[in-house]
Amino acid sequence: MRKAAQGRSTNLFSLAVLFTVILLGMDFAVTFLLSDQQQKIVYSDVISPVFDLLASAVLFIAAKQSATHSRRLALAWGMIALSTFAYALGDIAWGILEVGLQEQPFPSSADAFYLAYYPILLLGVFLLPDKPASRGEKIINVLDVGIVMAAAILVFWNFLLGPIVSASPGSDSLELAILLGYPVGDLVLLWALLRIIYKRPDQQDEVPAFLLAASIIVTIISDCIYTYQSLLGTYVSGGILDIGWR
Questions:
Q1: Total of domains in the chain
Q2: CB hemisphere CA count around 86 (13 angstroms)
């Protein structure tokens, strides 16, 4: 039984990697082949919610199937699916504003959906079942996570949060809160990532845990680059960076 589970896990991982590589290859090809910037923006605004909705649908299906094993596991994947769906709604709102209405999509209603993604995902990750651990192991894990988070907060303050505050002395308070919300959200994602790492998932859960962790890492990197480019005024919608959010 264990060998069969390992085989299914390996096959699932291989298929997931292959599917991801194909999608990324197509995405990069289209992004590079399109020479007109407006076409790139339209493509990005259309394809992003499609990818997000597909991902959320798969996650909702996984949540439903998990219900036969554990209600908590089903709820966890359901929350993760909901976070992806919230992000999809943000992409839809962004696309409608940017392409349909020709309006500046930031700040806008899209930010409400984007920012909702972070706490919902964190809640889903915390609901994932833990492997049994001794009291000493739990204390060590908490200390390790605390050290990493403290270091990350310092780095984020020096390179992202602090510069945002310094560069926005006369900005509207709501706009400033939204600007700060994304780096703070990335810290939330880092917390979720550390939670996944220290959960030590069972062998049959290693593949979904790995894929979830990988997606979180890509999102954190993309968000940080976006925030930094926004500070410099160099971010261009529809560029390669947008692939990181798909």
A1: 1
A2: 17
pLDDT tens sequence across 160-198: 999 999 887 777 888 889 989 999 999 999 999 999 988
d(CA 123, CA 77): 10
The most confident of 28-42, 46-60, 179-193, by mean pLDDT: 179-193
Task: Please identify which residue in the block is written with the tokens 């550390």.
Answer: 194
Q: Residue 240: helix, strand or coil by DSSP?
A: helix
Task: Supply the DSSP symbol for 23.
Answer: H
Domain holding 18, by residue range, is 2-245
| Secondary structure of residue 41 in the 3-state scheme | helix
As a whole number, the mean pLDDT across the chain is: 87
**Where does residue 238 fall: left (phi above 0), alpha (psi -120 to 50 degrees), or beta otherwise?**
left
How many Å apart are CA 240 and CA 33, to the nearest integer? Answer: 12
Nearest Cα neighbor of 31 from 241, 220, 221 is: 241
